[in-house]
């Protein structure tokens, strides 16, 4: 009789482990495939936004090309053509265009 109780006690932990282990594996897979790469991408974007300076050529999220005329913590003033200056939020910048890429496209 006690043998059955001991077997039932050890068998009770088995279903809990078999339930928790797949969820743990799924979390680990999601972390390495989704969460971690997204954090790295966000970190590199934040570094790019912090490194912007006056005179850099950039592209906004909407596809507008311009040169930075002035910067504040939140806003960027872009010179689009010889006379047009537009103000954008710093978060609206998609990427910076290097001078090498700009000279190649001309």
From TrEMBL:
Keyword Protein transport: yes
Subcellular localization, as worded in the UniProt entry: Cell membrane
GO process terms (BP): protein transport
Membrane topology type: Single-pass membrane protein
SMART domains named among the record's database cross-references: YajC
Chief place where the protein resides: membrane
Keyword terms of this UniProt record: Cell membrane, Membrane, Protein transport, Translocation, Transmembrane, Transmembrane helix, Transport
Signal peptide segment: none
Record bears the keyword Membrane: yes
Transmembrane segments: 12-35
Cellular compartments per GO CC: plasma membrane
Taxonomic superkingdom: Bacteria
NCBIfam families registered for this protein in UniProt: yajC (TIGR00739)
Family stated for the protein in its record: Belongs to the YajC family.
UniProt name for this protein: Preprotein translocase subunit YajC
Organism: Paenibacillus woosongensis
Highest classification ranks of the organism: Bacteria, Bacillati, Bacillota, Bacilli, Bacillales
Gene assigned in the entry: yajC
């Amino acid at each position: 009789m006690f043998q059955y109780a001991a077997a039932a006690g050890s068998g009770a932990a088995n279903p809990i482990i078999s339930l928790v282990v797949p969820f743990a594996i799924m979390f680990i897979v999601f972390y390495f495939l989704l969460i971690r790469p997204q954090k790295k991408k966000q970190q590199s974007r934040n570094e790019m936004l912090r490194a912007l300076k006056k005179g850099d050529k950039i592209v906004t999220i909407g596809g507008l090309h311009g040169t930075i005329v002035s910067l504040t913590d939140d806003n960027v003033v872009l010179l689009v053509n010889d006379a047009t200056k537009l103000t954008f939020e710093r978060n609206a910048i998609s990427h910076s265009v290097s001078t090498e890429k700009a000279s190649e496209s001309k």
